[in-house]
Amino acid sequence: MDLAPRHRQPISLPGPWPACAQRLLREGAAWLHTGDTGESLLALPGQALVSRWDGRAWDNRIGGRALPGSPWETLASAVSQLPRPWIGAATFELACDEAELPRKPIETGTLGQHWVAVEEALHVKDGEAELWSWTEAPAATDRWTDWLTPTPDLGESAVDLMALWTEARHRAAVAQIQAHILDGAFYVANLCVPFKGRLSGDPVALALRAFQRARPPFGALLDLGGLQLLSLSMERLLSRRGGLLRSQPIKGSAPLTGDPERDHVAAEALAADPKERAEHTMILDLVRNDLGRAALAGSVQVVRAMAVESFPTVQHLVSTVEATARPGLGLAELFRAVLPGGSVTGAPKHAVCSHLAQAEAGPRGFYCGAVGWISPSGNLDLALPIRTAQIQGEQLTYWSGGGITRRSDPAREWAELHLKTRAISG
Question: Which CATH number do you get for residue 385?
Answer without folding.
Answer: 3.60.120.10
